[in-house]
């Protein structure tokens, strides 16, 4: 998702890990329908395997300004039971939206802190935004628990973790000569 009119995009590290050529598709409002704009000249600015976050930049001329999303204040906090929406392209079905609630605002899994949500998080949702009812990004969709008998166990990285990552980009700067 686009966080800056200059073409800065947030996604998960696992979405771009090991990639050398990255392209991004952005939907823009057309006269009668949405149109797809593809950008092939995208570079990695910062990445963290530990946080599973990455910051990308569209380097080619963007032309018209990109629509950006606002990131919820880390101080605002989330309430369990709060309605949220996940957006992504699960199984290649672009512009898919699913609704759910925050089940647990501070779930620890493998030493990482997550938002646990009932929104459907499927392959292709990773790196997409989790919105609150104000249209603010409260999380970065990350994973789901896929096990027999398990449903509605989606997880997102909180906006608090995202803001910390963005505030400390120099610590996560990507060096293409040493991608490790």
How does this structure look, described?
This protein has 180 residues and is mainly beta. It has helices spanning 13-16, 159-167, and strands at 2-4, 8-11, 22-29, 34-48, 53-58, 70-71, 83-88, 96-109, 112-117, 129-131, 136-144, 154-158. The strands form 2 sheets. It has a 6-stranded antiparallel β-barrel. It has a 5-stranded antiparallel sheet with strand order 1-2-5-4-3. Strand 10 and strand 11 (136-144) form a beta hairpin. It is globular. The mean pLDDT is 88.
Q: What's the pLDDT, averaged over the residues?
A: 88
Distance between the termini: 24 Å
Q: State the helix count.
A: 2
| Topology as a string of helices (H) and strands (E) | EEHEEEEEEEEEEH
Structural class: mainly beta
> How big is the Rg?
16 Å
Strand content: over 45%
**Low-pLDDT sequence parts:** none
Q: In which order are the strands of the major sheet placed? A: 7-8-9-12-11-10
**Count of β-strands:** 12
Largest sheet: 6 strands, antiparallel, barrel
- Measured as a percent range, the helix fraction is under 10%
**Global shape:** globular
Quick structural summary:
The chain is mostly beta strands and 180 residues long.
Which tags fit this structure?
180 residues, mainly beta, 6-stranded antiparallel barrel, 2 helices, 7% helix, globular
Furnish the topology, listing elements before pairings:
Elements: E1 2-4, E2 8-11, H1 13-16, E3 22-29, E4 34-48, E5 53-58, E6 70-71, E7 83-88, E8 96-109, E9 112-117, E10 129-131, E11 136-144, E12 154-158, H2 159-167
Parallel strand pairs: 6-11
Antiparallel strand pairs: 1-2, 2-5, 3-4, 4-5, 7-8, 7-10, 8-9, 9-12, 10-11, 11-12
